[in-house]
Fold:
Amino acid sequence: MDILAVLNLSEIALYFSKMSMFPLFDLAYYIVSILYLKYEPGSVEVSRRNPIASWMCAMLYCFASYIMADILLGESPLHYFNNTSHILLATAVWYLIFYCPLNLFYKCVAFMPVKLILTAMKEVVRVRKISMGVVHAHHAYHHGWIIMALVGWAKGAGVALISNFEQLIRGVWKPETNEFLNMSFPTKASLVGAVIFTLQQARWLPISKHNVVFLFTIFMVVTKVFMTATHSHGSPFAPIEAFICPIIFGNACGIYDDHD
Amino acid sequence: MDILAVLNLSEIALYFSKMSMFPLFDLAYYIVSILYLKYEPGSVEVSRRNPIASWMCAMLYCFASYIMADILLGESPLHYFNNTSHILLATAVWYLIFYCPLNLFYKCVAFMPVKLILTAMKEVVRVRKISMGVVHAHHAYHHGWIIMALVGWAKGAGVALISNFEQLIRGVWKPETNEFLNMSFPTKASLVGAVIFTLQQARWLPISKHNVVFLFTIFMVVTKVFMTATHSHGSPFAPIEAFICPIIFGNACGIYDDHD
Amino acid sequence: MDILAVLNLSEIALYFSKMSMFPLFDLAYYIVSILYLKYEPGSVEVSRRNPIASWMCAMLYCFASYIMADILLGESPLHYFNNTSHILLATAVWYLIFYCPLNLFYKCVAFMPVKLILTAMKEVVRVRKISMGVVHAHHAYHHGWIIMALVGWAKGAGVALISNFEQLIRGVWKPETNEFLNMSFPTKASLVGAVIFTLQQARWLPISKHNVVFLFTIFMVVTKVFMTATHSHGSPFAPIEAFICPIIFGNACGIYDDHD
Structure:
């Protein structure tokens, strides 16, 4: 990576890769995730009527990526709940967002400049999770490239992939749609990221891991912050899909996905 | 526990804790569980039209607590089915309740005095299951307090927590409600019990395990027998909830739950 | 088995049991499975609009038996995806069936004589899977006869048992029916086969394993090819069910199942 070397970015990438996510970045992840839960129609009412169902949904929003990755690799779905401090931190965030007097906490974190910073931090965690998911799967299956990509994808996309079942806890059931039929940008990006990290793990990419993580993080942060700031739902993958899909699948499949 | 010592109850509790559940108490558990399955609308018709679906539901009613706990701890969901004698006993109970000529067996066990005794015995098994669930999770995760409470809860509440999916086997789908949105008394009591047993396991309660089990069993037996005898659905937790919920969650969440 | 010895079939059965399934028979299995996916209403539209959801359904059609068996035995549901070559072969079949120009591949394999040969080969794989499933469960639970039968059943019946969730990926939800309520012939036959193989594994049948596999394969191939050729949905088990069900379950349960 000559460009990185010239710009002296490789050292920054290395330093960045050693940065700890807990508690600051994880906190941002929990805040933004549970914020999105509060945006869901009916979730505030559920939190009033049954705090336990609301808490379970909040935990899925924060930890579904770990739960899914553990299930996919045949481990206990509650494995991550061994980190009591993480669970308590997420629980505190859930409590503050839903029950804080005067809705103060919600108003603070939903204030656009704050939200943009938190969103940027969440994307940093997301990319780290994808990378760790691929490594985790690599330890279990040394040549299971498809497994690595799928686990990495689950780690990145998180609760989105099981949104049907998360909604079911809140008494909502929308079988006519799901994340596979209407992929959001983060889900698509997570899939792309998981494939890239798997290729890197297989040594088919001539670039070191911390550089891939660094570059992909920059892409995710810039894109997601821009999309959040402009309330845009257009995917940056749309032109690529519109070009590739008709060739491979004989139809502009990407066109439909823009409306989600 | 001075009171227990004075009343010489500690020895009774110790003796009680060594009492085997199989086959008598387990039998009562299977009978009452499958009785509740027969109360479900449409379950008799399913048993006529497709015995295999009916048998699967019956097995879930009897063993969902083991299946869930094993899944939550990353073990085989069929692990408990290794106890062939337990499965055959439950299968015999299922057969007698659904297909016994003249409905004789059903009439016997649904006769109120008999049913009350069986209900009492079922609650004994339930409390033992919660306690064993917490210990089981403790072996896997020595400091995973949240995991212990969740596994204990799953062991106590049993099929109720996955009732949506149990109903799905019988062709019934009610997504607008579930046990998390409308908790029944046994589910709430199981959660309370699981938290108490977890606190005891963590040595935060100055009381020995067999005493906790004994006292909680008495509470469950008395409450559930009283509720069954009076056909009551009011929860003894309602006043506590009505007091605590407005303080913590800013709203009388318990009020809604009384109607289930 | 004197008859087999006289006909010199035992040697054929032994030779047959050593025959490798990969790649030819597995290829036939993938082709017929994904062909049935294409028959499902709406699946072609899904393949146009969202190839990833379509690919996931195709993988379930091909590998659900492995996924379910691994879940039931507490292993990683993605375990089989370690066989990258199998996944790539199934992916190639999926691509050719759904996206081949002029629908050429589909027309070739759906041409009746070809389809009959492929169906016969698929049944060979199915019986082998049931047998392997029972052995797999036997390794984990030496005396878990019920577990063996259930795992063998899951291996044989495949995606049918989880069709509700496979449909959910395509945005289709039919909770009023499922494979347990309306068993198709392959599902029933897989259950019968799993019970027979379990009895053989327990040494309760005086016949060697390769002979059971051989005879059951012949039964499955002949029945399924006949049913496919005549577009018949009548089950050869119907007369037996009509005889046994009224005696055991007090009602002609089989009568309803004929209509599926």
Remarks:
- Chain C touches chain A through 28 residues (CB under 8 Å).
- Residues 23 and 86 of chain C are 8 Å apart (CA to CA).
- Chain C is about 70% helix and 0% strand.
- The longest helix of chain C spans residues 112-140.
